[in-house]
Design goal:
- The complex is a heterodimer.
- Chain A is of the alpha/beta class.
- Chain A has helices at about 40-50, 70-85, 95-105, 115-120; strands spanning about 1-5, 15-20, 20-30, 55-65, 90, 110-115.
- A six-stranded mixed β-sheet of chain A has the order 1-2-3-4-5-6.
- The mean pLDDT of chain A is about 95.
- Chain B has a four-stranded antiparallel β-sheet, with helices on one face.
- Chain B is α+β, with helices and mostly antiparallel strands.
- Chain B is globular.
- Chain B has helices spanning about 10-20, 25-45, 95-105, 125-130, and strands at about 55-60, 65-75, 105-115, 115-125.
- The chains are: A alpha/beta, B alpha+beta.
- At the A-B interface, helix 2 and helix 3 of A face helix 1, helix 2 and helix 3 of B.
Chain lengths: ~120, ~150
């Protein structure tokens, strides 16, 4: 396991785990995400995907009380990138407002939504 | 407010707080906040082409049964509902903000002005929403936050 740092408050660090199923990048995101700071999230996610070519990115959103469509756009772009590996994005610990927006965006069945990180790690 | 993205959250919270103070309920407060966020983001990105320092005027009239929010800009005056319509694809960028407005508001009108656009959004409280509901995680109806504003330009 190794640790990544980003210098970005929204997602300051992540850990990289490599197992039989490939590489996983696991990160906790914290804070509200909107047009102001979603570009920071974009930069970090795309960099980590490009560098580590993970089979899965697990984003713990338990400390994200709110996000808007610009955050959704960032996650969709990351999803498009990781699908080429091919890999998947797992979202865990969704708060109600974030879950609601994913449902409006009809993305709740496109991302893998899990109860928590352990649940995500247990998925094939 | 002006067209800097870092101003969106304060305006969103102010509108959420107004809804809560007026007894509109947590669900409406959260949805109004989302719509105001999306509308402001559209103004900044599309009407002003991300140019900073441009004026945006927000006003809200609220009563026990409804809230009407008006957002005025002096941008390019393009009415997004008049653009060629394409089916929403969740894996393609764009369009989600307008979907939020249409889904969460009872009435959404873009009224072209000689020098920009006026967006008028209205949400009416349903009978089910009139029943008080306990605030869950992600609630909008929390204690007022320091620095909240009700409107601004």
């Amino acid at each position: 396991m190794s640790e990544l740092t980003s210098g970005v408050d929204l997602v300051p660090k992540a850990r990289v785990e490599t197992g039989p199923g490939g590489t996983s990048v696991i990160a906790s995101v914290r804070g509200e995400i909107d047009l102001h700071n979603s570009p920071e999230l974009r930069g970090v996610l795309l960099e980590w995907i490009a560098q580590h070519q993970p089979k899965r990115v697990i984003l713990n959103l338990g400390q994200v009380p709110y996000m808007d469509s610009s955050a959704i756009a960032v996650m969709v772009e990351a999803l498009q990138k990781i699908r080429k590996i091919p890999g998947r994005i797992f979202l865990t610990d969704l708060q109600p407002r974030v879950k609601g927006l994913l449902e409006i965006a009809r993305l709740d069945s496109i991302f893998v939504v899990c109860a928590d990180e352990a649940d995500a790690l247990s998925r094939n | 407010m002006t067209s800097e993205p870092d101003q969106i959250s304060a305006v969103r919270r102010a509108l959420e707080s107004l809804c809560c103070d007026e007894g509109l309920g947590d669900q409406i407060a959260c949805e109004i906040g989302l719509c105001v966020n999306e509308a402001l983001a559209n103004v900044i990105r599309h009407a002003y082409g991300k140019a900073p320092g441009k004026p945006i005027l927000i006003s809200a009239v609220c009563d026990a049964n409804s809230i009407e929010v008006k957002i005025r800009d002096w941008g390019n005056g393009v009415n997004p509902t008049k653009l060629p319509e394409k089916p929403y694809d969740p894996l393609e960028p764009g369009g989600l903000g307008l979907i939020c407005l249409k889904r969460c508001m009872n009435d959404v009108r873009f009224e072209p002005q000689a020098d920009g656009m006026l967006l008028v959004m209205k949400r009416i409280k349903t009978s089910a929403e009139r029943a008080p509901a306990p605030a869950a995680g992600g609630s909008c109806c929390e204690a007022p936050r320091a620095g909240d504003q009700r409107s601004g330009r």
